[in-house]
Design goal:
By secondary structure, the protein is α/β, with parallel strands linked by helices. The protein has 10 helices and 18 strands. The strands form 3 sheets. Strands 1, 2, 8, 9, 10, 11, 17 and 18 form an 8-stranded mixed beta sheet that branches.
Length: about 425
């Protein structure tokens, strides 16, 4: 791999930044590949990288209908955490956080991972007890977590609304190793690293049909011609149901919803943490970017859509939630907002599994958690594709868990609004 270094940054600064090469190639698609990953987002790129790095596989392509970073990869609020409790979730997200901690070194690309702590506010003794159970489980299984009382929280974050909040703040559950990363940088880093290992990243290549030969996928018809594949992995987030129907597999227990996010005008340093709360029907999270903007979001839009744009009711709801805990933001102007397409499963948990077709594999259903899961998602999906069996940590991330009654989500809250809040 062509390495980036401080010396090269200095040297190219003296020559007008003229000596940098392409971060990744723009190859023409081959007629056939051993493995084709459909979806050039974070999960698809990470899968291709770990297939090449961990399993030594070479003849791999990633097909992206747009450009790298143009889908959900660049439409989230960049939060990384592993504060999960349930078996399976606990190990999976902790492994993901461990991968995040070394990701910039592994990819030789600064993904701007900032471990600034994830601070989950609680507003009642019952909430404190629930968080204590979760965070004690985390500590007993090799992760970090702590509970802050009101005085410690005031010392750490003095400008929250402690005096007249609708839901009085009584403390917080904190994971210090959690934080944020730059979403675009993660996509570019994985793309560059996968390319250096021989993966073909093919942009502007939309899959228009799935060609089957009995119980297998024979080829993918794309906007750039037909591509034959030995194995195929779907990692297309909110468009999963479209690809699934192209393969004549019927319906999935997934709904596609919009999740909006927002950023304010740049401010002087105000918040050096990720702060979240959920009570009384509200759901809110906020952090401050390196450029100074306040990055925040809330609940889903409660109707199904493939659009990447939001609407005003959610703008109002989310801004009201921001004001409820940070009234100092009242006169701050909103710079922009956007929407990602969320693939919401019926139980709020993902799929990393084999499918009814022998050589087709599924990575989908990430709900709210897709960004923080990206490294581990790619790691375990690559392991599944390479070895044709699920790792023990993801054996319940399967399509048949609904018939077996397996619950792996913390709340079991899918797309139904009655299950949230």
């Amino acid at each position: 791999m062509k390495q980036y270094s401080a010396w090269k940054v200095f040297k190219n600064g003296l020559t007008g930044q003229k000596d940098w090469g392409r971060a990744w190639r723009d190859p023409e698609p081959k007629q056939a590949y051993d493995i084709v990953i459909v979806g050039g987002g974070l999960h698809g790129l990470a899968t291709a990288f770990y297939l090449a790095k961990n399993h030594g596989l070479k003849n791999i392509a990633v097909l992206e209908k747009g450009w790298i970073g143009g889908g959900n990869a660049g439409r989230n609020t960049t939060i990384v955490r592993s504060n999960y409790m349930m078996p399976g979730n606990r190990q999976f997200y902790e492994h993901s956080l461990q991968l995040w901690e070394e990701l910039s070194h592994e990819l030789n690309y600064n993904v701007m991972f900032s471990q600034r702590a994830h601070v989950a506010l609680f507003h009642s003794p019952g909430a404190r007890d629930a968080y204590a159970r979760r965070y004690n489980t985390m500590r007993l299984t090799g992760s970090d977590g702590e509970l802050w009382g009101l005085e410690q929280l005031k010392n750490e974050i003095p400008h929250l609304n402690y005096n007249d909040a609708r839901f009085p703040i009584t403390g917080a559950a904190v994971q210090r190793r959690a934080g944020t990363a730059r979403h675009d940088a993660v996509a570019w880093g994985y793309a560059r690293a996968a390319d250096q290992l021989g993966v073909d990243i093919i942009q502007n290549c939309e899959v228009t049909a799935v060609r089957r030969d009995g119980g297998r996928v024979h080829a993918l018809q794309t906007s750039r011609g037909e591509i034959k594949a030995g194995k195929v992995g779907f990692a297309v987030a909110g468009n999963t149901t479209r690809l699934w129907q192209m393969a004549d597999l019927g319906n999935l227990p997934i709904e596609s919803h919009k999740l909006q996010a927002f950023v304010s005008e740049p401010l002087k340093p105000l918040l050096d943490h990720v702060v979240v709360f959920g009570v009384g029907g509200a759901h809110f999270y906020i952090s401050q970017s390196d450029k100074g903007g306040m990055v925040f979001g809330g609940d889903l839009d409660w109707y199904k859509s493939y659009a990447q744009r939001g609407n005003l009711p959610i703008v109002q709801d989310t801004c009201e939630a921001a004001m409820s805990i940070l009234p100092c933001l009242g006169r701050v102007r909103l710079l922009r907002h956007w929407s990602g397409v969320m693939d919401m499963t019926m139980d709020g948990s993902p799929f990393i599994c084999k499918t009814p077709l022998k050589n087709l594999y599924l990575n989908a259903g990430w709900n709210y958690g897709g960004f923080k899961a990206s490294p581990a998602s790619g790691w375990y999906f690559a392991d599944l594709i390479a070895n044709d069996r699920p790792h023990e940590f993801i054996e319940h991330f399967s399509l048949d868990r609904f018939t077996r009654g397996v619950i792996i989500d913390e709340r079991g809250a899918g797309p139904d609004p009655k299950l949230h809040g």
